[in-house]
Every structure is written in C-alpha cells, then in structure tokens.
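Quick one - inputs below.
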Amino acid sequence: MVNFIVEDREGNRQEREAPEDMGLNLMEILKAYEYPVLATCGGMALCATCHVEILEGKEGLGDATDVELDQLENLPEYFPTSRLSCQIRIGDILEGAVVKLRGEDVV
Amino acid sequence: MGLFAVFEAGLLKMRCHLIDALPQIGGQLSEIYPQKPIYDIPGYPEIKAQDLVDNLLEQAKPFKPTFTLGERVDSLDKQEDGSFILTTSDKTKIHAQVIVIAGGLGCFEPRKPVLENLEAFEGKGVTYMVKNPETFRDKKVVIAGGGDSALDWAIYLSKVSERVTLVHRNETFRGAPDSAGKVFDLANQGKIDLILSANLKEVNGNGKLNTVVLEGKSKEEIRLDADYLIPLFGLSPKLGPIADWGLSIDKNAIEVDTRDYSTGVDRIYAIGDINTYPGKLKLILCGFHEAAIMMHSAFKHVYPDQKLSFKYTTVNGVNAF
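Output:
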C-alpha cells in the first residue's frame, strides 16, 4: 500500500492509501474515496476534470506530460505543479505526497 | 445514447426530436474523444468514437429524427393530457408525449474564469461562445484563452472587429501550430493585440462591460477598453436545469426504476451515463440495452389505445417512416 494525503477543495486533509499493484491511477482512487471528481473522459487525459495540484512530493511525481499540458492550458486556472490525476499511476512515487483537488466541484 | 433511442423508438413507430446543448450530435463521443478507439461495442472489435456516432446516425435515419442543436432544455411544463412542452435556452418550444433524458454527464457548458462580478456582465459584454460573429463587428473585443478556439476566433474576429486583444497566460500556444503562427503574424502586423503571460483579473462597467483588467507578468495591472470579453477555456459537463425538474438525483445522476428506466416523474425516462441504479455500469452497451427497454415502456404513453407486440428486426425489417 502507498500512503499519501488528499486535501479537498475546502482545505480538509485526509490520509489515504492505495494498492500499488492493481494498475490503478490516482483519479480512480479519488473516485473510490468518493471525492467529487467528474473524470468525464474516464482517464484519457482529454477533459481535465480530474485536475489536482501536487502540494508536496513533486520531485517523485515529475512534471505534467505534454498530453496533460494540452488540457491544463485550456483551464481558466492552473498551477506550476498541476497534474491530471488520471495520468498519475499509483506507485511508490506517490508515497508521502500531498495532493490537492482543483478544478470545478461536481455540482 | 439518444441516437440509438431514436432507432428503438422508430421500430415501435414513435418518432423522436433530439435536443442537445452542443452544436453537433454525438454527445461526449463527438465532443471529447472522437478519434479514440472503443473496444467494447458488441460486434465491433474496435471502432472510433466518431465512427460509432456516424453509424448510429445512419441507423436512426429511416426514422427521420429532427434536431434542435446548440440549445439546452431549460424547463418542462406538464400539460393537462400528460404531455410536455419543453423550452430551450433559446426559447424554442417543443411538444412531446414522452421525455428521454440521455444527457451523459450533463450539458457541456463553458468553463468560467473565477472573476468577481463576471456573471453580472454575462449577456452584457461577457459571452462564452461566438454564435454570430456579426455581433462583434466594429467592437473592441478581448478574447482570453490559449486553445484552438481562442486562436481561431482571434484570427476570424481580427477581420470583423474594431480591435481584438488576445490574452494568454503563457508565452506560447499549445493549439494548432498553424493557427498560433497566424496569430503571431497578425500581432506583428498590428492587426491584433497579443498580451502574453497575463491573466484576467477584473471586469468593470456600468450596466454593460467597458473595461477588462489584466494582471501582467510583473503583477502590473493592464486596463483594456472592451465592449466584449470572450473567455474560451473549454467546456465541462454540468447537470444544469435537469436538477430542477423534480427528479430524484443521487450524486449527479438520476435514479431510475430498472424495470423500464423510468424516473419518479411520469413519462420521463433517463438512460445512459445520466442515470443510476444498483449495479449500474457506465458503458455504452448498457445504455443501448436501457434504450430498448425504455422505449417499449414509453409506447403506452404515445399509443395508449394500442397493444404493443414485440417484433424482431430479422422478421419485420426496418420500416422507415
């Protein structure tokens, strides 16, 4: 299991864990924990509705890829450590990271 | 899903009118991933999303559906005979015996920048799409965004408007290189104003927009006279007015009875990603199943005096209208 922290849009932090051996991505874990993440495109990096900001642990997770930047740049607001959570594979790189939900709430 | 519902309705001699907030048919398949292959459509080991939409349209054609596109259904008014009058965002009125909500994740609506007062200027200078370019003739227009739409409209409106300013938060564009090149050329020729590394900060006016304030690279304030601001930051689905129709909603989805995918409101059904029920799988193939079942249930509302007899297309074929 990998342990990390999720901060919701209201600023509340919770420790979360996820199995690293099931081929899951962070978006799927956030949805499993019932965070309000739309994930319209289902994980194809085509909608940016699973936008997160990496507050801590960016070194391991690396920068947004080109396909992520194509989407992020279309958003009204994004940050230097913004990522699409659907493009972050659950693995050791996530251990100890702090991830903040960004983007629109599901209303 | 709406397109297959048209086909299933047609087999039962019911004709459909399709309404979509998007300007084209095909829902999220056409809007978000038209070129992506789908691998779990029965009978198709692999099919591109747009090809599936095209095929569904072809399949529905014999039943002559009619369309209202680029308009969102805002309200439903129940009539004395049980039917409905639907009114769209453009005030188009449509009379229907039965309503099928196949709205996917909701209506695709423009993403709005977070600016104080922005909504107060909507329709009074702030607009999120260009419906009629003539609206902007000889006007001062500020376009915000760095995607293809922002680039394309900046290029187009440079020929129509008095002044076009394109505001983008970065130094480069990730949109089509061709369009980006044209924008830089137009800027060099003085035909548009290009302000890079800047963000929208404020909108001001007196009943109508007259100033857009930006924050530049060094946090300096840039004030632009503007008749129009067009923020172009893509689209995102919202449940929208559906939430106000008295339906039972759970986590942005409409609760339905799995016997016929009816909602709690008589004559309103919901199929595809927009509905929820125990065991729901958000798969296209499940939506197809839901469409067939719900149309057989809807028959009783459209033809209350007729008895429905189940028929196979292999026996009866497809009898066009």
